[in-house]
């Protein structure tokens, strides 16, 4: 099962560098007894992990010890993997901490590949990111082995049509949760967004900054909002791009995404000269045919199921650059070959050509199910399916069923209905919304700004396409964000870049 919330850089970029930390000892940000104590960081050369090379010599890695349970600050600790590249100029402002989304995305792996986008910011900031708790090199959780993941992809229908398919769907969800519990142990109850926001303040201290300068993308915007709520007086220059709606509950988020992806699909179809309504209907009919009879592919022993086909359609909607690939993949599928859509789905699901899967989705689920205490039942979901399908004949059914399956029979209770992001007294926070964003629809930016509070949230709008605005081709957006982060120039609330 895949939830469509990750930022495109975590799923589309084919050449992400995979970096590891140089392996901090217990003294890296902790006392010698392993308890949380000092916050000094022992930066060293980054090591390669997996099949990827280590990043270049500009990059340094370290491990910071933080409390496992923030209610017991002197108790057991866990290690957080960090990466940085020092500022290139003489007029250094401090550190700029990045979170690229997810939840579950590795900042250690992503930061080096994002450095070119942030090159102007690096002139005055050290670029810093980290693997949040429960992610990758920071006690990363793996809930299922590769063989079991592939088996579930081929056998579990994300839009069940019969009682047997529904039971298999729910059984698979419960089994995934049990696997997470076995893998995570005590960590399972301590990977919430609130826990990670507290980690961010410890990172700020370890970096030696009086205030946190931060760039959050997609889920990183929710994380930034929670940090601002917890530590309003410690907010420095904070930019939130591709904004998660903090006022939306589980059903609200699902409906937002259904609208967002349908809007992106409509815009794609218009770009090909097709009527969006007719084009969507044809794609929905294709998915129904694939549901009845999966398509053959060139990947040995694998077929394209309806769920994999839908995932393959979603991936290129994250960026306008992916639209030609979608055109080609849909044409091939209509002709009976599912290979191209399967390849796109594998890109989203972080599956390499040898059949190995990344763990982003595992961490994503562990974190989001701890955050969210709502657990819609299958009965509640089925009552709302017509509403989802009215919003989108392509994505509605899948995203509706996702609300019932994502945290079904989860081993630990969730913490809240919606995150608290009010931050009275905080410095201005720049909130960037893109009107064509499929995964975090534009309306979330205004709602985030409203909830941050008067004189805190400042909205910058881009009339563009894709997930996220900064570095996506708008000189207006990039120059406005750079002026804010580098010079402290706060734009007028409501500024529009077209």
From TrEMBL:
Residues 392-497 form the Peptidase S33 tripeptidyl aminopeptidase-like C-terminal domain. Keywords: Hydrolase, Signal. Residues 1-24 form the signal peptide. The keyword DNA repair does not apply. Gene3D superfamilies: alpha/beta hydrolase (3.40.50.1820). It comes from the Bacteria. Belongs to the peptidase S33 family. GO terms for molecular function: hydrolase activity. This is Alpha/beta hydrolase.
